[in-house]
Amino acid sequence: MINASVAIQVLPSVEGKDVIRVVDKVIQYLKSSGLNVYVGPFETTIEGEYDQLMEMVKRCQLICIEEGAPSVMSYVKISYRPEGGILTIDEKVTKHHQ
């Protein structure tokens, strides 16, 4: 059941273009989930089941560290409705991309 939507921006503490390399690893991980993922210029949004998404947020931090960042800051926005029925990514943005 889709009962949550999470937007995450990871900011690994690495130099220069290495930031892009590390962030790309995080995005690759999110896309590999098979869930609906929307990559924006500042954050990536993903929809799914709340507990699964919270584990994914945790994993995003660990990926940054595994990729060589000594630390990482993240900004996370969560929309959660236990019974489901959240506004989907498509409902929010499709009209702006036609």
TrEMBL record:
Pfam families to which the protein is assigned, alphabetical: Thiamine_BP (PF01910)
Report the InterPro entries cross-referenced here.
MTH1187/YkoF-like (IPR029756), Thiamine_BP (IPR002767), UPF0045_domain (IPR051614)
Question: Which intervals hold domain Thiamine-binding protein?
Answer: 6-96
Q: Origin, by domain of life?
A: Bacteria
An example GO CC term for this entry is: cytosol
Regarding protein family, the annotation reads: Belongs to the UPF0045 family.
Name this polypeptide is given? Thiamine-binding protein domain-containing protein
Q: Source species, please?
A: Desulfitobacterium dichloroeliminans (strain LMG P-21439 / DCA1)
